[in-house]
Amino acid sequence: MSLLDFLKVPLFQRAFLGCLLSGAGLSLLGLVVLNLNLTTIRFALMHIALLGAAAAMVLGFSPLIGAMLGIIVASLLLGPAGDYIKVDTGITGVIFMTGSLGLAFILFYKAGVPAMDAFALFTGNVLALTNADIWTIIALTLVIFTVFILFYREIQMLLYNPDLAESLGVPVKLLRNGLLLLTGLALGISIRIVGALLVDAAVLLPAIAAMTTSRSLKGTLIMSGIFGVLSQVGGLAASMIFDLPSGASITMSAVLILCITGFVQLITKSKLGGVS
Amino acid sequence: MIGPRNNMSVIRIEDLWSSYGREPVLQGLSIDLKEGQSLGIAGPNGAGKTTLFKVILGLVKPQRGRVIVLECELKNEKDRSWVRRQLAYVPQQSVRGKLPVSVWDAVLMGRWGKTFGFLKMPQNSDKAAVHQALEEVGLLHKLKADCRALSGGELQKVALARALIRGASIMLLDEPTTYLDHRSKEDLVELLTRIREERKLSLITISHDPSHLEQITDEVLQMENGRLREKI
């Protein structure tokens, strides 16, 4: 089958649409994770998404919806409640991370979920996206774009220097918690597409590549979206052409893009160094 | 001769107490900054210097005491919000950001909450102000540069330009010369002295090293354990 033949099948159409939208929208939140030092919280949210998906599988509804619900609860606990009870997010992150994974395995064992179904949560399967999943991805992508367009300056100030933003009157805590929730939801969707083990590829790698190639936030957001689409759609196409697992193929595309941008930067810098 | 121009207080702090949890940070502190005066506060890390700035900016509520900025006592969120618009704050620049932000954008941030803000785009007057401020600090040629590629001295000038476009008459500077090499420090001191005179600014500068403060202040106070101990 050629790529065009694949695209005539609804299952593959949904997969491509899912990759296109998540590539364009979700990678923008990688910038938030990288610049607000949310790496520990991101791990916690990923594992809680996994627990939510596991509970959904056991109860017999969509794993994506389960992951989303888990993340909404966790974001509220790690965000506003964390501000209120003043507990170090690093410590709560580790508790959430290990506790949710342990609980997910207990659920799988007690409910007798087949090992391959459970494993699918870790590796992801973009070809298993349902129409409901696609609508969820469309809605979240639209929300992400709207937030970044409407609050561009405020997000820029928060990511650049939270102390400065606060001193100028930007509602830093509200904005940070809102972005934390969106980041969690993006991670939940990425788990469905590339799997829990490779979720960084979808969210972080395009953002890192964009940060190495751009000189302004606007440029970084645009490049992040472009690299996100290239890695997801390109990775999916490569998986079909070369018969590879889709999650791993998307990940390797993102790694390849990051290596190319890093190499180009290195060449450009050494050339500039030679001139000066 | 630069110094206080008259006897009018622009910031008056009376018997200020503040703490983080059970740990007292500010203990009965009083300050009177006159119009045109430049006051330095030296003290070790953890002495409460940055907390003092946060109280003046209305970001930390004191447990006791009065803070009066330009005749407005900080009592509620409305007062704090008004006072924030009257002050220009230059935060500490010890860590270089990872985010690509152009010099233009970094300076424009200073106008947020004044002429543009939530769902309100920057105006032409904001763009003109960015040009003027960058010209004033001698960085107009770096307008499109990425802040990550700037030297420590240039980054501090960007922070100063951002503070200038707020159009405030009071400036709060947190360790402005601490992380700079000797030449950049000399440059910044000269620039601050000129700007202070031209714009008739009142300044409070905090630093852990009193030697950093002598050149840019009229008076240096020593802060220790949340108290102002002695005049140096």
Which descriptors would you attach to this protein?
heterodimer; A: 276 residues; mainly alpha; B: 232 residues; alpha/beta; Rossmann fold; 6-stranded mixed sheet; 4-stranded antiparallel sheet
Structure in words:
The complex is a heterodimer of chains A (276) and B (232). Chain A is mainly α and 276 residues long. Chain A has a single domain, classed as ABC transporter involved in vitamin B12 uptake, BtuC (Orthogonal Bundle). Chain A is 84% helix and 0% strand. In chain A, helix 4 packs across helix 5 and helix 4 packs across helix 12. Chain B is α/β, with parallel strands linked by helices and 232 residues long. Chain B has one domain: Rossmann fold (3-Layer(aba) Sandwich), CATH 3.40.50. Chain B has 6 helices and 10 strands. Chain B has a 6-stranded mixed β-sheet with strand order 6-7-8-3-9-10, sandwiched between helices. In chain B, strand 7, helix 6 and strand 8 form a beta-alpha-beta unit. In chain B, helix 4 crosses helix 5 and helix 5 runs parallel beside helix 6. The two termini of chain B are 20 Å apart. The chains are: A mainly alpha (276), B alpha/beta (232).
Brief synopsis:
The complex is a heterodimer of chains A (276) and B (232). By secondary structure, chain A is mostly helical.
Structural classification of chain A: mainly alpha
Q: Find the CATH superfamily of chain A.
A: ABC transporter involved in vitamin B12 uptake, BtuC
Distance between the termini of chain A: 53 Å
Rg of chain B from C-alpha positions? 17 Å
CATH fold-level name of chain B: Rossmann fold
Query: What is the number of helical segments of chain B per DSSP (H or I, 4+ residues)?
Result: 6
Can you write the helix and strand succession of chain B as a string? EEEHEEHEHHHEHEEE
